[in-house]
């Protein structure tokens, strides 16, 4: 289940999210609770601290959209509620 959510959320961010705040975001891991009601999504962002915070704000504001799209795409009884966690950001020096 976690791998399926990982692929779908990555696809949504890459191809369908239109928020200009989103920078280069990579979904690194997804953890799902045993009852499949909650998912913790871990992301990394390429850029400085401001870019990472901006991207995380864009992802957080799009969480409802992601949940809706997952409900349309996946045939599950429950679509997990998603919480986004920023792991680390990478910057090019």
What is the secondary structure topology, with strand pairs?
Layout: H1 2-16, E1 24-32, E2 38-46, H2 49-61, H3 63-73, E3 81-90
Parallel strand pairs: 2-3
Antiparallel strand pairs: 1-2
Helix pairs in contact: 1-3
Q: What can you see in these coordinates?
A:
- With 93 residues, the chain is an alpha+beta fold.
- The protein is built from three helices and three strands; from the N terminus they run H-E-E-H-H-E.
- It has a three-stranded mixed beta sheet.
- Helix 1 crosses helix 3.
- The longest helix has 15 residues.
Work out the radius of gyration.
Answer: 13 Å
What order do the strands of the largest sheet run in, or round the barrel if closed? Answer: 1-2-3
| Tally of DSSP helical segments | 3
Proportion of residues in extended strands: 25-35%
- Overall morphology: globular
Task: Please provide the count of β strands.
Answer: 3
Descriptive keywords:
3 strands; 93 residues; 30% strand; alpha+beta; 3-stranded mixed β-sheet
What is the compact description of this entry?
With 93 residues, this protein is of the alpha+beta class. 42% of the residues lie in helices and 30% in strands.
């Amino acid at each position: 289940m976690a791998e399926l959510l990982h692929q779908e959320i990555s696809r949504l961010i890459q191809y369908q999210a239109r928020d200009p705040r989103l920078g280069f975001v990579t979904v690194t891991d997804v953890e799902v609770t045993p009852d499949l009601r909650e998912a913790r999504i871990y992301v990394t962002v390429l850029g400085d601290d401001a870019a990472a915070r901006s991207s995380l704000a864009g992802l957080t504001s799009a969480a409802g959209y992601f949940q809706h799209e997952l409900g349309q795409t996946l045939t599950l009884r429950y679509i997990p509620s998603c919480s986004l966690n920023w792991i680390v950001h990478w910057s090019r020096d």
